[in-house]
Amino acid sequence: MMDVTTVAIGRPEGPDLLVGPGRPLLLIAGPCVLESPELARRVAGTMQEICGRLGLSYVFKASFDKANRTSLGSFRGPGLAEGLAVMAGIRDAMNVPVVSDVHESSQVPSAAAVLDVIQIPAFLCRQTDLLQAAATTGKPINLKKGQFLSPWDMAHAVDKIKSVNGSRVLLVERGSCFGYNNLVVDMRSFPVMRELGCPVIYDATHSVQLPGGAGGSSGGQREFIAPLARAAVAAGIDGLFMEVHPDPDRALCDGPNSIALDRVEAILQQIVRIRSCLE
């Protein structure tokens, strides 16, 4: 079994956040997509305060472009330049690390100039050129496991990244395809992927997504976010990923599987208590 490597995530000011064994639980959270600067700042500020109270490390997440939406007419976000400007504003004003996903190698240089962590979407986790372009930046990479892959198959994706310059990798479990329009979470995935030497993050909100389940968009079962997150923390993960929105029913993307901003702290309090039992 390979020892899990601690991953350092840079902050605009102050010490890096450290993710891995013996470190505070990491929370990556924010709205699915950048809807407005005001909404993004509200979520980031609230989540930063909550994580500070609970002793959690925090990274703000939002997408500047959702290139993998189900239908052509779905909202994708503000785009690369405008979206990165919003992310830079949050990063610098709040002293909080930020992460967003890239879909093409051409986006990587601009994204790396702003982001503290580069995310690779699950559908693109085998795209060699994209993985290696992200690795050349030297930034930590939040690599989502494809819904179509076994946890042990992620070894090949990790090798593609680390062959460039040994970049720091976080592996994200977000559920596996289970028939049509459904996902399941195999809790065995967490220790299996940790054996690859990478900290493992559980995506508690995309895992309850029903892909394409709402016709022209994905549905979701947010009532299962809390129990699955509790189980994942008990299984020994290093961090959680959550999509959070002030009003999920009106969110422009992934509302059915997002958590309401005013309900997050109660869930995280449970998470903290469970993790304390493992220390």
UniProtKB/TrEMBL annotation:
<feature type="domain" description="DAHP synthetase I/KDSA">
    <location>
        <begin position="16"/>
        <end position="271"/>
    </location>
</feature>
<comment type="similarity">
    <text>Belongs to the KdsA family.</text>
</comment>
<dbReference type="InterPro" id="IPR013785">
    <property type="entry name" value="Aldolase_TIM"/>
</dbReference>
<keyword id="KW-0448">Lipopolysaccharide biosynthesis</keyword>
<dbReference type="GO" id="GO:0005737">
    <property type="term" value="C:cytoplasm"/>
</dbReference>
<keyword id="KW-0963">Cytoplasm</keyword>
<protein>
    <recommendedName>
        <fullName>2-dehydro-3-deoxyphosphooctonate aldolase</fullName>
        <ecNumber>2.5.1.55</ecNumber>
    </recommendedName>
</protein>
<comment type="pathway">
    <text>Carbohydrate biosynthesis; 3-deoxy-D-manno-octulosonate biosynthesis; 3-deoxy-D-manno-octulosonate from D-ribulose 5-phosphate: step 2/3.</text>
</comment>
<dbReference type="InterPro" id="IPR006269">
    <property type="entry name" value="KDO8P_synthase"/>
</dbReference>
<dbReference type="GO" id="GO:0008676">
    <property type="term" value="F:3-deoxy-8-phosphooctulonate synthase activity"/>
</dbReference>
<keyword id="KW-0808">Transferase</keyword>
<dbReference type="Pfam" id="PF00793">
    <property type="entry name" value="DAHP_synth_1"/>
</dbReference>
<comment type="pathway">
    <text>Bacterial outer membrane biogenesis; lipopolysaccharide biosynthesis.</text>
</comment>
<dbReference type="InterPro" id="IPR006218">
    <property type="entry name" value="DAHP1/KDSA"/>
</dbReference>
<dbReference type="GO" id="GO:0019294">
    <property type="term" value="P:keto-3-deoxy-D-manno-octulosonic acid biosynthetic process"/>
</dbReference>
